[in-house]
């Protein structure tokens, strides 16, 4: 059994927590904000108990309150996303809302005055509805629109913001937004749309990075990267070569789909392309997947466009080899089946199981697989688990155990394995809107009373635990946990 490591993190380690615009801001049409795909999703009654993001946590009107609880948590870094439609209601610069931009100015200034580094995500899933009406991420014209939006944000906020994520968990957009249709905009097309979306997001990311590199890096001195999400995958039976290969395919279809073009050679992983071609030959009467092709100039433009490797990680999977037939989607095309180890603790989420050692394995994998050509630090940009609505509201011991395990595995990766991890971000600062689950799953270190129109925040035991870890920069000093 791997023992708990009672050591400190390196000096200067960044301790963060996070929120995402559509989950907490509210003010869905305040000061001229444009409609987003998540506004539409809620208004079409697609979330738990017909819940919407109209008010959410009312963070749009509670900048001082939110920064106050951040100071109490003692984080030195806060990651939040900008709502594209709050700044450009139509998605285009011509519709600029000055009041929307001022909201983010106020938040950024309040953070800096409190000694907290702002980390800004340009896109966390809430596309302006007007852009979606034109095809959203399947329309190649969105690359130029995103580039222009990023340029505005760099010019407006970059004198104070020194770390940018272009996208956070883009795989979820491709998979759940345009593949399975479980997320906004609710499109079910894993044959064409899902792959086209990834293609356009990768090109959009690269263009934003080049805008910063060409026009802002010299004067602002910041970093631009991308926050990719991935489970860790272990072969269900390590003695079976086909299960070992299936676990690798799982990682290639989830992480490699985005990481390989940016960090390895400007193109999709060979395993992904080979597997799709194999399926196409096997299924002549139906096309299981259509993977777009980068031109040589596009590949060159994408490769190396990251100043760090952002990682959102929550859980692990056991993977076995199957014949997925001709079914579209990663499991059918990828010929793998996922399951969980009975020893892993369950959470309020049907997809998150607590398996802390998976984080260390994934960090080692990333370091070996992706950081040879582009040698950059790893930032853990998201890690957390939900508790149930109506459960033990404040004494969230299961979350404390989860955090304790995952943070310690990151420490082992740093001190024992020599992986260059420089930040740990706990999701989330407060309870918020969790997509299809609405407010029924609570990821927050702070409890939000959604029955109260004032939306008060109250720290949970996990907030006190995290503040102790931060204060001591790890686990070298004994404290309750």
TrEMBL record:
<keyword id="KW-0325">Glycoprotein</keyword>
<dbReference type="InterPro" id="IPR017853">
    <property type="entry name" value="GH"/>
</dbReference>
<dbReference type="GO" id="GO:0004553">
    <property type="term" value="F:hydrolase activity, hydrolyzing O-glycosyl compounds"/>
</dbReference>
<comment type="subunit">
    <text>Homodimer.</text>
</comment>
<dbReference type="Pfam" id="PF00232">
    <property type="entry name" value="Glyco_hydro_1"/>
</dbReference>
<dbReference type="GO" id="GO:0005975">
    <property type="term" value="P:carbohydrate metabolic process"/>
</dbReference>
<protein>
    <recommendedName>
        <fullName>Lactase</fullName>
    </recommendedName>
</protein>
<dbReference type="InterPro" id="IPR001360">
    <property type="entry name" value="Glyco_hydro_1"/>
</dbReference>
<comment type="similarity">
    <text>Belongs to the glycosyl hydrolase 1 family.</text>
</comment>
<keyword id="KW-0378">Hydrolase</keyword>
<keyword id="KW-0326">Glycosidase</keyword>
């Amino acid at each position: 059994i791997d023992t708990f490591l009672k050591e400190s993190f390196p000096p200067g380690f960044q301790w963060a927590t996070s929120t995402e615009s559509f989950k907490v801001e509210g003010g869905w049409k305040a000061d001229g904000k444009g409609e987003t795909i998540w506004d539409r999703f809620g208004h079409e009654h697609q979330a738990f108990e017909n819940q919407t993001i109209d008010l959410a946590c009312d963070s749009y009107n509670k900048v001082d309150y939110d920064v106050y609880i951040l100071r109490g948590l003692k984080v030195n870094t806060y990651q939040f996303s900008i709502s594209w439609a709050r700044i450009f209601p139509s998605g285009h610069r011509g519709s600029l809302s000055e009041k929307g931009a001022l909201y983010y100015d106020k938040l950024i200034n309040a953070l800096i005055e409190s000694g907290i580094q702002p980390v800004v995500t340009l896109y966390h899933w809430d596309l302006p509805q007007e852009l979606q009406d034109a095809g959203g991420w399947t329309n190649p014209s969105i690359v130029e629109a995103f580039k222009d939006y990023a340029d505005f944000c760099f010019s407006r906020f970059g004198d104070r913001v020194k770390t940018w994520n272009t996208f956070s968990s883009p795989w979820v957009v491709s998979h759940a937004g345009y593949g399975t249709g479980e997320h906004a905009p609710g499109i079910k097309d894993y044959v064409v749309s899902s792959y086209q979306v990834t293609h356009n997001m990768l090109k959009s990311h690269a263009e934003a990075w080049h805008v910063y590199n060409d026009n802002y890096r010299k004067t602002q001195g910041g970093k631009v990267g991308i926050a990719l999400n991935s489970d860790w995958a272990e072969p269900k039976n390590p003695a079976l070569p086909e299960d070992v290969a299936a676990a690798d395919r799982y990682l290639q279809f989830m992480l490699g789909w985005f990481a390989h073009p940016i960090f390895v050679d400007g193109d999709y992983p060979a395993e992904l392309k080979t597997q799709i071609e194999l399926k196409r030959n096997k299924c002549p009467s139906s096309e299981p997947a259509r993977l777009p092709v980068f031109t040589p100039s596009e590949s060159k433009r994408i490769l190396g466009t990251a100043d760090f490797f952002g990682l959102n990680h929550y859980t692990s999977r056991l993977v076995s080899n199957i014949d997925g037939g001709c079914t579209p989607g990663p499991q059918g095309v990828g010929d793998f089946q996922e399951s969980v180890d009975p020893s892993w603790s369950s959470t309020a989420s049907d997809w998150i199981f607590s398996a802390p050692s998976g984080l260390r394995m994934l960090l080692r994998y990333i370091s070996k697989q992706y950081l040879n050509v582009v040698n950059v630090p790893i930032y853990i940009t998201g890690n957390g688990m939900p508790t149930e609505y109506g459960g033990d509201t404040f004494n969230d011991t299961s979350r404390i155990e989860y955090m304790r395990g995952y943070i310690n595995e990151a420490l082992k990766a740093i001190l024992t394995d020599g992986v260059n991890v420089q930040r740990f971000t706990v999701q989330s600062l407060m309870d918020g809107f969790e997509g299809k689950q609405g407010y029924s799953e609570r990821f927050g270190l702070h409890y939000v009373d959604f029955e109260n129109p004032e939306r008060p925040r109250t720290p949970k035991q996990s907030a006190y635990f995290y503040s102790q870890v931060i204060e001591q920069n790890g686990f070298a000093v004994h404290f309750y946990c």
